[in-house]
Design goal:
about 130 residues, mainly alpha, about 55% helix, elongated, Transposase, Homeodomain-like_sf
Length: about 130
């Protein structure tokens, strides 16, 4: 579902002030009742309709560069460890999914195990002997 524009949020607020019900506004605007309720709550508490802007438009990272480097170094020294163990050993602040994302950004990817070749008839005869 696409995000509501500031104009659509203002329309919801005006309909709330005209004593429309949440259900009626949601049906009219083709959004969920919880969406209308959240906009109503924000309007009542903070008197704003716009979404809060993130600083610099970016999502804040949970780990810093030193923690990322410690995780990468640990995995390079222990290539057969899991991301869960690497997080626990390096005290990485994020979850294992975040750790895997940081490792992938560093160019460290997981590899599928090698497949062994199927035995041919000649090889099977050698095994049976």
């Amino acid at each position: 579902m696409p995000q509501l524009t500031n104009v659509e949020r203002a329309v919801i607020i005006s309909k709330l002030e005209d004593n429309w019900s949440l259900r009626r506004i949601a049906a009219h605007m083709h959004v969920s009742k919880s969406c209308v309720f959240k906009i109503k709550t924000i309007w009542q508490t903070e008197q704003r309709t716009e979404k809060r802007a993130r600083p610099n438009g970016l999502i804040r990272k949970i780990s810093n560069e030193e923690e990322d480097q410690a995780l990468i170094q640990y995995v390079l020294e222990n290539p057969f460890t899991t991301s869960v163990n690497a997080c626990a050993e390096t005290h990485f602040p994020g979850c294992s999914k975040t750790a895997r994302r940081r490792l992938k950004e560093a160019g460290i990817h997981n590899h599928a195990p090698a497949r062994k070749p199927f035995l041919t008839k000649a090889a099977k005869q050698l095994v049976d002997v």
